[in-house]
Design goal:
Shape: elongated
Strand order of the largest sheet: 4-5-7-6
Low-confidence stretches: none
Helix content: 55-70%
Mean pLDDT: 91
Largest sheet: 4 strands, antiparallel
Radius of gyration: 22 Å
Strand content: 5-15%
Number of helices: 12
């Protein structure tokens, strides 16, 4: 399974109520390449998306849509030519086939993440972080591309836009922005995978600069940093981060912001600097809280 498929699989699990299904299908329909008064065509090479589309249509419109046979070149296609169904879709989502743009009235009750997920399902992709940091949306028009960039901007992510043949591409190369985007869509584990890759890359680069570093010690530091980061992210996920003392929160945030630093270096950056053992003591407390969460079934 590719990294992009892992993202789709994880995100699909979050589309679990009516508001999210409504917003997710809106994202798919709005960003599909073919949407006219005569035809809507949804094409995908993803098995996750091809399974999700019929579920969304059934939930939102109470109709069954059947895919075409999968081919090697085009994957699966959902071709909608029923004029009454197309009219119903257009009226429900207020979609102008001549000038498609995001209508925020269709994105209610904190379902922006599901809408972005729908756009990603139909026109998004992300490269394996071991190879490169790159996430992109290949959109049908400049307006839809700009609108999508505004959605990203609403949670602090800024992409860049280029024209590629007849499409407009919104792309992100900053690893932290990719992590934030995946987390916002609901792919927290995939976001964590990118963070872990980055930690390993940073530590390798540091190891190359430090000729006398012992390989075993480096691996120990890397694994400890990864474990600490996973514990902190688990606390954030289950709203336990804000319950930490200010001193522990500061150390935890420094770890997230500086995954390559040693405990000694983190201690030196604290508002009130402390030694390595003091920093280690704080992370042991965080680890204990994370362990308790895992024992209670939190993952």
């Amino acid at each position: 399974m590719s990294f992009a498929d892992e993202v789709r699989t994880e995100v699909r699990r979050t589309i679990n109520d009516m508001d999210k299904r409504f917003a997710c299908l809106y994202g798919i329909l709005l960003y599909t390449r073919v949407f006219t008064e005569e035809q809507i065509c949804i094409q995908t090479e993803s098995s996750e998306v091809s399974a999700l589309v019929p579920e969304l249509f059934s939930s939102v419109f109470g109709v069954k849509v059947q895919p075409s046979e999968k081919t090697e070149n085009t994957g699966v296609s959902f071709n909608i030519t029923d004029s009454e169904l197309i009219k119903k879709i257009r009226n429900t989502y207020k979609i102008d086939t001549v000038c498609r743009e995001i209508n925020l009235r269709n994105i209610v009750n904190n379902s922006t993440s599901a809408f972005l997920a729908g756009a990603f399902f139909i026109c998004g992709s992300v490269i394996d972080p071991n190879k490169e940091y790159h996430l992109e949306f290949v959109t049908p028009s400049e307006l839809l591309c700009s609108d999508l960039n505004a959605i990203l901007g609403s949670f602090g992510v800024s992409g860049k836009i280029i024209q590629r043949k007849k499409s407009y591409v919104l792309y992100i190369k900053d690893s932290e922005c990719i992590e934030d985007t995946l987390t916002f869509m609901g792919a927290q584990q995939c976001s964590m995978d990118i963070m872990n890759v980055k930690i390993r890359k940073d530590m390798r680069n540091k190891a190359n600069r430090l000729r006398n570093c012992d390989e075993a010690n480096i691996n120990k530091v890397v694994n400890a940093a990864i474990k600490q980061t996973e514990d902190i992210m688990l606390l954030k996920k289950y709203n336990e981060f804000e319950n930490l003392s200010p001193e522990m929160r500061e150390a935890a945030q420094l770890r997230l912001d500086n995954p390559e630093l040693s405990l000694k270096e983190i201690g030196e950056l604290l508002t009130e600097p402390i030694g390595r053992s003091g920093v280690n003591h704080r992370f042991k407390k965080i680890a204990a809280i994370a362990k308790e969460l895992r024992e209670n079934g939190c993952r």
